């Protein structure tokens, strides 16, 4: 159990750091911060699809804990997505909140499917 905790923790630190760096990089480019979050979440969904496909072939449970649960889990967080939806709703922007919600779910699923397909699972 301690080894699992350590692996998740070792993956989470660089994942959170990369999320911070990517959001700060995209923020000046996109019209609002929540679109930067969307871009990061799409990339993480794609990477998770690749990892799941590769896991079927050759990845160890320890590597999945490090990369999928730790790194990608901290790179792409559901709580940030929900907070950004709530902020839009409080700003009286329900159309943009709906667009963000739909874009996040649909693009996340498509990116995951693409990762699975490229990884050879689909």
What is the string of SSEs from the N terminus onward?
Answer: HHHHH
Envelope shape: globular
How is the main sheet built? Answer: none
Q: What is the alpha-carbon Rg in Å? A: 16 Å
Counting DSSP E segments of at least 2 residues, the number of strands comes to 0
Indicate how many domains the architecture comprises: 1
Number of helices in the DSSP assignment: 5
Distance between the termini: 32 Å
> Mean pLDDT, nearest integer?
92
Going by helix content, strand content and strand pairing, the class is mainly alpha
Helix share bin = over 70%
Per DSSP, what share of the residues sits in E-state strands of 2 or more residues? under 5%
**Uncertain spans, ≥5 residues at pLDDT below 50?**
none
GO cellular component, one term: plasma membrane
Keywords: Cell membrane, Ion channel, Ion transport, Membrane, Metal-binding, Sodium, Transmembrane, Transmembrane helix, Transport
Catalytic activity: fluoride(in) = fluoride(out)
Protein name: Fluoride-specific ion channel FluC
Describe the structure.
- The protein is mainly alpha-helical and 122 residues long.
- The protein is 84% helix and 0% strand.
- It is built from five helices and no strands.
- The protein has helices at 2-26, 33-57, 61-75, 78-90, 94-118.
- Helix 2 (33-57) packs parallel to helix 5.
- The radius of gyration is 16 Å and the shape is globular.
């Amino acid at each position: 159990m301690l080894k699992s905790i350590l692996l998740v923790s070792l993956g989470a630190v660089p994942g959170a750091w990369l999320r911070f760096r990517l959001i700060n990089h995209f923020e000046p480019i996109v019209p609002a911060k929540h679109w930067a979050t969307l871009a990061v979440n799409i990339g993480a969904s794609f990477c998770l699809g690749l990892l799941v496909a590769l896991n079927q072939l050759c990845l160890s449970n320890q590597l999945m804990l490090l990369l999928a649960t730790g790194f990608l889990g901290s790179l792409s967080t559901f709580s940030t997505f929900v907070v950004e939806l709530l902020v839009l709703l409080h700003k009286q922007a329900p159309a943009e909140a709906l667009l963000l919600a739909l874009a996040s779910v649909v693009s996340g699923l498509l990116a995951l499917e693409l990762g699975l397909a490229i990884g050879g699972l689909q």
